Amino acid sequence: MRKNKAAAEIWLNKAKDHLTFAKAGWGESGLISDTCVLCQQAAEKALKALLELENIDVERTPALKIHRLADIIAECEMYYPEVGKFKDDCDRLNVYYFDRYPAEISLDLVEEDATFALAAAEKILNFVEGVISTT
User: Fold this and answer.
1) Half-sphere exposure of 66 (CA within 13 A, CB side)
2) pLDDT, averaged across the chain
3) Which of 39, 45, 61, 73 meets the CB 3.0–4.6 Å disulfide criterion with 15?
4) Cβ–Cβ under 8 Å, residues 12 and 49
């Protein structure tokens, strides 16, 4: 089956935008929560780019209109088994998604969370970019 590189690149570019903004925001303001949330979003969109590459329209696939990275990785592994190496990073990144709204119980994120999130998101984006660029 033919790959949908154009759609994949749209999703990857959005992921890159999130990561770029997370890095800039972290460097400028040190806002931990927003940095972590943006990194989770960057990883999510990058992984969804892999699915778009396989002609899976994630916007029209109800099972993929989710934010749970473990489910998205499971879907990606059907096409790219090596993406499984990011499962642990994604489990941790996924927790940050829940910090996007005020809650009665704060996650109490610390600087280590932001530095982890930035590094993990960058690894995932670099992997996905490598796959897409060789297609």
Assistant:
1) 13
2) 94
3) 45
4) yes
* pTM of the predicted protein model: 0.94
Look at residue 105 in the predicted model and tell me its pLDDT. 67
In the DSSP assignment, the letter for residue 101 is: S
The rounded distance, in Å, linking the Cα atoms of 119 and 7 is 25
Q: How many CB atoms lie within 10 A of CB 11?
A: 23
User: DSSP letters of 45-79?
Assistant: HHHHHHHHHTT--GGG-GGGS---HHHHHHHHHTT
Cα gap 46→104, rounded to integer Å:
30
| Mean pLDDT within 60-89 | 94
Residue 110 exposure: Cα atoms within 13 Å on the Cβ side:
1
Average pLDDT on 85-93 reads: 97
Domain 5-133 class, CATH top level:
mainly alpha
